[in-house]
Amino acid sequence: MRNALAPTLWLALLAGLTFAMPLLEPLLAWIEPDRQSVLYQRESLAALLLNHSMLVVGATLVAALVGIGAGIAVTRPGGRDFLPLASRLASIGQTFPPVAVLALAVPMIGFGNGPTLLALMLYGLLPILRNTLAGLDGVAPAVKEAGTGMGLSRPALLLQVELPLSKRVILAGIRTSMTINMATAAIGSTVGTQTLGDPVIAGLVNGNTAYVLQGALLIAVLALFTDSLFEAIERRWAIA
Questions:
Q1: Distance of alpha carbon 54 from alpha carbon 133, whole angstroms
Q2: Does the keyword Transmembrane apply (predicted)?
Q3: Which domain, by its residues, includes 143?
């Protein structure tokens, strides 16, 4: 019960801010007293929140499939030679700025969700791959030998021993990836993607701090909700 309380509270706060933002109009008007409009109304905040979240979830799913799959492949006897290459490629994806990915992807893919998904997937790949490698390599050799001695095949050993023992480490990588990308996804608004970065960019362009505050506040609470949700899942798995 306690594990679910924190994400529930963050979710309630997120929903409250999304649908009851007009209640903060006096505060926003105090911040920007010379503005006729302090509430961002070009797009529904709920629609922006939904599209923002779906982009990050989609990118994280792809990154998880690629990262976990690559981590499994290069930790098998036949793939060990590719382990340094996999780590290096994932590191490049993390250090390459998402804005640069967007700039390179737009001429090829066009504006919209495509470049943003690609940037988020590349940026979120390293934590998942790194934790998958750490989790699988962290399984004690004696445990693997015991599984082999019980007659488990290599695929069965992976599914029944290695992955269950490393699932918390892998989940921590997915948690890091998704939490970071909940904030990073805002840059997608620069290439025509509808995200919570829309009010931030509109506020920066128009010099309207109230717009910036609305977008930034929702992004921050969304990231905190995501992190607390994964923390609750990790605790439940620890108990199990």
A1: 27
A2: yes
A3: 44-239
